[in-house]
Fold this protein.
Amino acid sequence: MRVLSIVTLVSPNGEYGGPVRVALNQAKALREAGHDVVVAGGARGFGEAAPHEFDGVPLRLFPARTIIPGIGFAGLCAPALQHWLKQAARSFDVVHIHAARDLVTLPAARWLRKAGIPYVVQTHGMIDPSDSPLAIPLDAFVTRPALRGAKVVFYLTDQERNDLSVVAGTALNLKHLANGVPAPGSANGPAAGTEVLYLARLARRKRPQLFVKMALALADEFPTVSFTLVGPDEGEGPAVQRLIDAADSKGILSWEGPLAPGATNERLSRAAVYVLPSIDEPYPMSVLEAMSLGVPVVITDSCGLAPAVTEIGCGIVVDDTLEALVGAVATVLRDDVLTHSMGRAGALASRNRFGMQAIAEALATSYR
């Protein structure tokens, strides 16, 4: 099959996060299974020339610009992408839209629906009930028709399935689709107790300030351990840096800024433990990637992967308090045997439960 995958934004620092990594992982797995896949989307930050491929996956990227300021990615549009889509869409058997409430993916779905071109939608937990003054008219005129016109709407969690039904009704053809991770070159397990890593956007929901407070609480007991934040600023960066500057007298904390998507695995592999303090995180790719590399994870109980982490035994699930986070990370750092046991469990599960081959097969079946 010939498949077109559409994402909102591709950038050199990976600021759009998980949905782009999911789309690229899917595309690579489908190509390895013999399908012809192209990933298209808005782009910014590449200078004069956006890339034409990533890790063997062909890209068609078009300039993205903000037309509604102050609402983040939702205010993005990519007019040249819409123009290209109208010329190219009929050369594909199906279009896979990684949709959010934005002016890149939803207009694409709207046009495909009107043109009668088959498409599927995957929302990554980004479309949920909202009483926002902007969301109400957008949902009425664009979001609901886009979802209802899809051949399949993929969901990750039960919460997302329920949210989609509330937004667009119960007649959607909803199918569960897990996220997966490619098998890494090697899974050496956690590093020798030297770094606790936060790798995510510095956004309020992800609670990077709590990570900093956790690090400060652990500094005396673990003077040789470093605590590092890696990721682009999405509103919390200045506050995080102020906390570090004011309280980190021992020099154990640092914020390295954004990281190119292709460098994620190498960076994760250097950590002793990966910590994501987010609240209501649907299905974080960074957690799956850490597991695949044999790195223990600490996440909150509102994370969509919490049941799997508990069942697999590849990390610790905590409530949303600072005390719980401090206790969990201390437990991992104190016990090398536990740490390596968790790492092995995560690496095994990533191969057997979150492998990309099964996901590619499920996608191909749904596309037909």
The domain at 2-177 is CATH 3.40.50.2000 (Rossmann fold).
